[in-house]
Amino acid sequence: MSSQNLTIVQAVRDGLYTEMNLDDEVLVMGEDVGKNGGVFRATEGLKDEFGGDRVIDTPLAESGIVGTAIGMAAMGLKPVPEIQFSGFMYPGFDQIVSHMGRFRNRTRGRYTLPMVLRAPYGGGIRAPESHSESKEMFYAHEAGLKVVIPSTPYDTKGLLISAIRDPDPVIFMEPKLIYRAFRGEVPEEDYTVPIGEAAVRREGTDVSVFTFGAMTRPTLEAVENLEEEGIDAEVVDIRTISPLDRETIVESFKKTGRAVVVHEAPKNGGLGAEITATIQEEALLYQEAPVKRVAGYDVPYPLYALEDYYLPSVARVEEGIREAVNF
Amino acid sequence: MALKEFKLPDVGEGVAEGELVTWHVAPGDEVTEDQVLAEVETDKALVDVPSPFNGTVEELLAEEGEVVPVGDVIITIREDGDDEETAKAADADADAETADSETAESDDADDGSSSGGRVFAPPSVRRLARELGVDLDSVDGSGPSGRVTEGDVRAAAEDDGDGDEPNGPRTVQSNGKSATAKRDEGTSASAAASAESADREQTLAAPATRALAKEEGVDIDAVPATEMRDGEAFVSPDAVAEYAQAQREAQAADAEAVAAEPDAGAATAEATGDAASEPAPPETGPGAGERVPYKGVRKAIGDQMQRSKYTAPHVTHHDEVDVTELVELREQLKPVAEDRGSRLTYMPFVMKAVVAALKDFPYLNSQLDEDNEEIVLRDEYNIGVAAATDAGLLVPVVRDADRKGMLELADEMNEKVEKARNRKIAPEEMRGGTFTITNIGGIGGEYATPIVNYPEVAILALGAIKDKPRVVDGEVVPRKVLTLSLSFDHRVVDGAQGARFTNRVKELLEDPKLLVLE
Amino acid sequence: MVVGDIATGTELLVIGAGPGGYVAAIRAAQNGIDTTLVEKDAYGGTCLNYGCIPSKALITGANLAHEAGNAEEMGIHADPVVDMSQLRDWKSGVVDQLTGGVEKLCKANGVNLVEGTARFKDENAVRIAHGGEGQGSETIEFEHCIIATGSRVIQIPGFDFGDEPVWSSRDALEADTVPERLVVVGGGYIGMELSTTFAKLGADVTVVEMLDDILPGYESDVARVVRERAEDLGIDMHFGEGASGWRDEDDGIMVTTETEDGEENEYRADKVLVAVGRSPVTDTMDIESAGLEADDRGFLSVDECRRTDVEHIYAVGDVVEDTPMLAHVASKEGIVAAEHVAGEPVAFDSQAVPAAVFTDPEIGTVGMTEADAEEAGFTPVVGQMPFRASGRALTTNHADGFVRVVADEESGFVLGAQIVGPEASELIAELAFAIEMGATLEDVASTIHTHPTLAEAVMEAAENALGQAIHTLNR
């Protein structure tokens, strides 16, 4: 089968297109997704292809978007609602947490919600307030929700299709900083990448570096730079925030005894804390240094004059890794 | 006429360089084969260097007085005759009038001056040259008129040996714990070969245990493991503490020479050198007997001795000094010292005399940095004083002996020796010495061939002070005589210097009043 | 429109889609590199849109008309009428066809096309202000960049191209009527090509040149052939004069000139064409932000792989210093840069760059002149063949000019050639090839050349250099 060279946002579109072709129950809804093709062109051309019944332009009302999708999903459709920026999920928070995440539990399994809530997340794009949020942990904390964050075009399409096919709700957060930063090979046909599995991007022996989303790029660059200093780092792309692939994390840590977690979300209560606790519980005896968290600061996301100081940079990641290695 | 380079030949005896003393030719001179071009001095001899060619001297590439490594080009000579290359020149292309110039001119590829930056090679050949890393200007073209062909380029690439490798990704060494292992290497000293060490890639231990190991200066992967957990070796805090203690004992023995057994070095060294290839010893007959482990402090001392004796060529200078006046002086000063709470032996006097002599003969207070090929003339005077202990010979070091008064020296020395005997001395207190004094006289014995305390360059052994008949003013009288044995590293110090140093020490001990001036 | 600035990443960014840029972009894409090509105006650049192509189209039209109207000798009697605007439209059609072709080729090779103007943000990113139907602007981050922004006409004081009677070469090519009287400032190749063209279309042409001959940079015997023919065509040439200004008159304009000594002259005209050269376009892109600096004339210096001082940024074409401002040089440089980005062992090592002037007769040159060869340390041998002795030339009724071949006497390597005469622009290709291949006079002379062709003259010139020409007398 042939493959294409796509950016991440093009892979989103390709995933939607592929799955909508295969399954008539799949539909897309959100602000500006239909006629406009999505503000990031993630749904470009879908309305022309599948019609207004399956590509729905909604009012500007996140709570309504999520709530309506919940209703559709309960009735057997497979909606893929979009929230234009992850920071806008908050008006729909109640719908997401109290209902989307608890429907299966509430109905004792008689009803599940096969829906995917898509939203671009993350900063670095010089945008005003609320457009740069990285609050995946809010949703990871609700057991009934799955949270997935891809970092490559291949994973984007594969994970999106897995999410659409999942009988339970998935929050699919897309790293918008790298929406168009590079291209990767994406097969034309449908394929899946399993949810709940992390991926080892680079094998190493000195330290395990855990990261996801847009932060995989500065992490990989930092790790490459550190090769010259004789540091051989293993890089693990978490991919699914919840349920967390603890096995892969612990397996990597047992090999190296040192860990660094890189995420742009604030440090307090971020995924780094969960990974640290996991390592403590399951691999204490292997530990040679404290787990280093290279994360966003515990402040509201700054306006963009300070953005580059807030986000983990290549230099900060390098420093973090050195700290862990030299302990 | 080809330009030939002449490299400084190997003049034998494994000599690596020579000093070009005199040139016998100048640029422009005609020379014949075997004619002497220059005189070169090697270690021991002045050697003539003959010319291998007939020709004209083009350029002298070394100056008189310059030290030249073997293999360096020292002169270029334009050799007579030899027009083979020009036979490749174009066939009857040129006009009749240019026929003679054909033989004179070599082709363009050879002689850079007429090319004007032009290269006569087709584009595909030029690209091939770049690919193979061949410099076209240096290729002789075999095509018509010296045009460079594909074959020429390929042949040149092969001649270059490996040629250029394409820039591939850097391969990273990932051999186990690369970065982290480096840290650990520093902690345990050369005496890691103490009582049972492990050598693991990975060790399980609680973070607190790891912290303890670090505190103790011990490599956790070397600590013998007490149990297994999760399929891996696990180490407890007790195991770390035990191992650390053993390490300390081994480290403390990280020095000194034993004077008591002359030539012990040779015999034991041979034995240890062949240890690897020795067959299992017999149970009875020759070679049988009680087996005592050779390890710990004993082995550490052994390693040190072997290293010192087998690296530095030792020479020992023996002499004796009339210390009658010194003995008297000490008798007078001893009660004064006691009043001040010090126990005054002869050692402080000897130390002072030695320090004064070292100032005059700094080469005996030096170290040989073999890697950089430099002798480091130390600017500190840290005198080691050997002490016999249960564990073996330890050498506490009195730092900055040149800046301390007699009583200060006495106190410090006594204190440190005491500590050493009680095994309470710290490794730092036994490091950093620049010269060592060992007193064998306490046990008895006059002369010895002490082994230099690496990385120092000299060591002075003192024998017993005895009454001996000596001739003074024509009469035979009993005098107090102290014997001296000075061993030194002949790479750095010559016999004459060693003797002179000893004489200086003698001077100050014979007439201790002179010490006041130092 | 969209909140926030999401950068698009690309491996190679090419700025400018002229003969340097689009060739580089296509070659890079052919080598599997993710390439983005930014152009603010039209694909094909100056060459396709305002230079080489339109000028040659016009020249063909002018030649055709002139030939037909001046062939009484051959018994052809005609008086052609030229509809200039129709000629112009036909020319535009040719240009559009080619421009469209470039766009298609780029797309077919997978090059991402962006319409807009690029400015450097830093050494790894540009900001593109979109042209056409755009979304304002975007940021593109690149790993490598090729600057191929070309050149613009030089405007001289007193002659503002914005004024209606003042023409740049671009304006001249867009003319929809032939001016009655045309003054051409500058006797270089552009000035002479356009003078010849407009003279053949019926204009009364006067050339004003500061130096003492037309076509500086060409040997005097070569320039002479063209100059004499120009005189035959009725073109007045004035040397040693510099244009100082112009003013409106009742009937057209008056162009004033000044000699070195201060002597003034005036020429009546309807249009004045200023063709004094071109300067590189490096001042519109904030190159300083990328860590680059142009010299005081605006050129960028590069190494043999066309890299600038910033290792991952290349420059090709007219912006490069010390290389001829020719389209084919830009294309070759574009290929070198693109292949270098792809990791190929390439360098700009062409042994000779051919050049052509489409005057009447044409000029084609490559490599060294006799003087160049001597200066370089060779002992040159020269062979010549006048077209008057060429059978084919006589049959075309254009027999002015000659072929000259310069070679190294001793080795026979061909070092250079100068051709002035019919089809010189085509004939020179053979000799460029000979020089690149390191061919000798014998190689050229021994190759059979079809008879009867103009190309035979090349063979004959080589034989002449060898002292064995058949159809001319040997030195």
Q: Tell the overall outline of chain C.
A: globular
What proportion of the residues of chain A form beta strands (DSSP E)?
Answer: 15-25%
Percentage of residues in strands of chain C: 25-35%
* SS element count, helices of chain A: 12
How confident is the prediction overall: mean pLDDT of chain C? 94
- The gyration radius over C-alpha positions of chain C equals 24 Å
Major β-sheet strand ordering of chain A: 9-11-10-13-14
**What is the architecture of the largest domain in chain C at the second tier of CATH?**
3-Layer(bba) Sandwich
> Pairing-aware structural class of the strands and helices of chain C?
alpha/beta
Share of helical residues of chain C: 25-40%
Radius of gyration of chain A: 19 Å
What structural class should be given to the helix and strand makeup of chain A?
alpha/beta
**Residue windows where pLDDT falls under 50 for at least 5 positions of chain A:** none
Family (chain C): Belongs to the class-I pyridine nucleotide-disulfide oxidoreductase family.
Enzyme class (chain C): oxidoreductase
Keywords (chain C): Disulfide bond, FAD, Flavoprotein, NAD, Oxidoreductase, Redox-active center
Catalytic activity (chain C): N(6)-[(R)-dihydrolipoyl]-L-lysyl-[protein] + NAD(+) = N(6)-[(R)-lipoyl]-L-lysyl-[protein] + NADH + H(+)
